[in-house]
Amino acid sequence: MKSKVCVLDIDMQGVRQVKNTDLNPWSIFIKPPSLESLKQRLTDRKTETEESLNKRLSRAEEEIKYGTTPGNFNAVIVNDDLDRAYNELKEFVVDKVLKNKVS
Hints:
The protein is mainly alpha-helical. It has a domain at 26-83: 3-Layer(aba) Sandwich (Rossmann fold). It has helices at residues 12-19, 35-45, 50-67, 82-98; strands at residues 28-31, 75-78. α2 (35-45) runs antiparallel to α3 (50-67). The termini are close together. Keywords: Kinase, Transferase. Belongs to the guanylate kinase family. It comes from Rhamnusium bicolor.
């Protein structure tokens, strides 16, 4: 039987709900390098109004605080370099998840 990994892209409430199940999930918080860099990324896309940008940044600030609080996630990966972040994610999944999976 092949091991499979389910990947969810969920908000803080979703993380709390999944952690309160019998699934024993592994969780990784993908963190922007800074709020300033996140603001720049969102601004460069030219898809946000000033109001929606401010809402997203406010929510991101809360998520960063939650995501970097010890015990809330098994790992935190800073998304400042795509290749490095991808390799960290892959390493985590292989080393922590797949190798610890019950057969």
